[in-house]
Amino acid sequence: MLELYHSINSVCAQKVRIALAEKELPHKEHLMTLGGDQFDPAYMKLNPNAVVPTLIHDGQPIIESSVILYYLDEAFPERPLMPVGPFARAKTRLFNKLIDEYVHNSCTVLTFATAFRPGHQKNAKPASLRLPVSSALHKSAT
What we know:
By secondary structure, this protein is α+β, with helices and mostly antiparallel strands. It is built from five helices and four strands, in the order E-H-E-H-E-E-H-H-H. The chain has helices at 11-22, 41-46, 65-75, 86-115, 136-141; strands spanning 2-6, 28-31, 54-57, 60-63. A four-stranded mixed β-sheet has the order 2-1-3-4, with helices on one face. Strand 3 (54-57) and strand 4 (60-63) form a beta hairpin. The chain starts with a strand and ends with a helix.
C-alpha cells in the first residue's frame, strides 16, 4: 500500500503526485498544512527533515522527491517514467538534478509566500477534485 504525505503548494510534492498519476498508482493521501503539523513527533519519525513529500510503501518511508521518483519507477516498473537507453537516462537524471538544485531553490520563496497566505490552505482543493494529469507526458516519453 502507498501513502503520500504532501502539501498542495509544495513543488516537490507536485512532482510525486504527477508520477503517481502517470503510473496510475492508487495511494492514500495525507494533506499537510505545513503550519506546524510537519513537526508532529509521529511525522518526524517518518521524515526527520520535517518537509514534504514523504511516501510510505508497505510501512517504509521514502523521503526526498527525486529519490521517491526513482523508487516508484523501480518498485513499479509498469508505465515507466524513465527512458530505456542509458544516455537518455543520464540526461533525465541531469535534468532532475537541475530541477532539485536550481529551480527548486528559485521557487522556495514564492512557494512559502503563497503557502502561508491567510486563508489559502482552507481554500485548497483536495486531490480528488483536481484535474487528472494527462497521459500525454507519458506518451511523448516513449
